[in-house]
Task: inverse folding
């Protein structure tokens, strides 16, 4: 399952606005949230793969693997 996390930045583009970080399971919903609801100029939409088997196989451990590294994600 893919998860898309919106990371909005303040107007300077450097500091993360942590009050509005939000995750979605549909890219379009993440995009609408950041462009219409938040209407911010600087943001990242980071795509990650969530394997549900990780939750049911004796505990979840974050491998640190991601399809994007936050800097090569969907940059707005």
Result:
């Amino acid at each position: 399952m893919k998860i898309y996390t919106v990371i909005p930045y303040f107007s300077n583009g450097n500091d993360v606005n942590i009050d509005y970080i939000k995750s979605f399971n549909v890219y379009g919903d993440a995009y609408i949230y950041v462009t219409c609801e938040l209407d911010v100029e600087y943001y990242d939409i980071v795509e990650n793969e969530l394997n549900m088997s990780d939750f049911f196989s004796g505990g979840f451990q974050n491998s640190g693997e991601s399809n994007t590294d936050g800097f090569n994600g969907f940059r707005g």
Q: What stands out?
A: The radius of gyration is 13 Å. Residues 48 and 64 are 10 Å apart (CA to CA).
